[in-house]
């Protein structure tokens, strides 16, 4: 069993990743379950840079393999915002309600055809010495609704419409989200590469 730390305190992300990673091969632990984990400052200008910071710094500190991800929403009408600031768009980190409110205010009066958006996920795997061993990314395109709909998911899910379903991620069940999300798309290329790496490590 390969021992892997997920570099986040976000319990909902942990649930999603546990469903997407092979449980018979990987023992996944979140930072919330580890005493002495550090809070890595997300000073990167891109999702890629932040994912690498979170993976390498935590790996060195814990002396363990760490998988970190940085994800967020980019909205075309807002020139890519909220981007790397998605989790703290309204100021306080992780305040989904305030972030969604601010996004709706920023897009007030913008018509449907100009509300295109994309969820982005960047993954980075670091060895215990802080060396990046694997990276992957995935995206999911959609549109921002004019009001929240659905109570499933987290973050901007209640505002993110999947065009093929005409429903938000907040309305779709986890099985559908697992097939379509930016996170699952990133993991589709990442997991086979990680399995090959684990096999080589013996």
TrEMBL record:
Residue numbers binding substrate: 8-13, 71, 154-157, 177, 182-183
GO biological process: nucleotide metabolic process; purine nucleoside triphosphate catabolic process
Keyword entries, A-Z: Hydrolase, Magnesium, Metal-binding, Nucleotide metabolism, Nucleotide-binding
Keyword Transport: no
Binding positions for Mg(2+) per the UniProt entry: 41, 70
Statement: the UniProt record of this protein carries the keyword Nucleotide-binding: yes
Listed EC numbers: 3.6.1.66
Gene Ontology molecular functions: dITP diphosphatase activity; ITP diphosphatase activity; metal ion binding; nucleotide binding; ribonucleoside triphosphate phosphatase activity; XTP diphosphatase activity
Active-site annotation: 70
Pfam families listed in its UniProt record: Ham1p_like
CDD domains referenced in this protein's UniProt entry, alphabetically: HAM1
Reactions mediated catalytically: dITP + H2O = dIMP + diphosphate + H(+); ITP + H2O = IMP + diphosphate + H(+); XTP + H2O = XMP + diphosphate + H(+)
A Gene Ontology cellular-component term: cytosol
Cofactor(s) this protein cannot do without: Mg(2+)
The protein's assembly and partners: Homodimer.
Functional note: Pyrophosphatase that catalyzes the hydrolysis of nucleoside triphosphates to their monophosphate derivatives, with a high preference for the non-canonical purine nucleotides XTP (xanthosine triphosphate), dITP (deoxyinosine triphosphate) and ITP. Seems to function as a house-cleaning enzyme that removes non-canonical purine nucleotides from the nucleotide pool, thus preventing their incorporation into DNA/RNA and avoiding chromosomal lesions.
PANTHER family: INOSINE TRIPHOSPHATE PYROPHOSPHATASE (PTHR11067:SF9), INOSINE TRIPHOSPHATE PYROPHOSPHATASE/HAM1 PROTEIN (PTHR11067)
Record-linked NCBIfam families: RdgB/HAM1 family non-canonical purine NTP pyrophosphatase
Protein name: dITP/XTP pyrophosphatase
């Amino acid at each position: 069993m390969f021992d892997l730390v997920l570099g986040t305190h976000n319990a909902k992300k942990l649930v999603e990743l546990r469903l997407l990673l092979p449980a018979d091969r990987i023992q996944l632990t979140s930072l919330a379950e580890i005493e002495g984990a550090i809070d890595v400052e997300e000073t990167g200008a891109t999702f890629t840079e932040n994912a690498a910071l979170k993976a390498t710094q935590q790996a060195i500190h814990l002396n363990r393999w760490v998988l970190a991800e940085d994800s967020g929403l980019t909205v075309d009408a807002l020139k890519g915002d909220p981007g790397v600031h998605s989790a703290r768009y309204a100021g306080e980190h992780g305040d989904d309600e305030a972030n969604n409110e601010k996004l709706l205010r920023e897009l007030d009066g913008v018509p449907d055809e100009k509300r295109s958006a994309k969820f982005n996920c960047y993954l980075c795997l670091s060895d215990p010495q802080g060396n990046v061993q694997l990276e992957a990314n995935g995206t999911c395109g959609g549109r921002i609704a004019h009001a929240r709909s659905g109570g499933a998911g987290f973050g901007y899910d209640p505002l993110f419409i999947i065009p093929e379903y005409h429903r938000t991620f907040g309305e779709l069940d986890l099985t559908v989200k697992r097939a379509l999300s930016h996170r699952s798309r990133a993991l589709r290329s990442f997991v086979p590469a990680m399995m090959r790496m684990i096999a080589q490590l013996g």
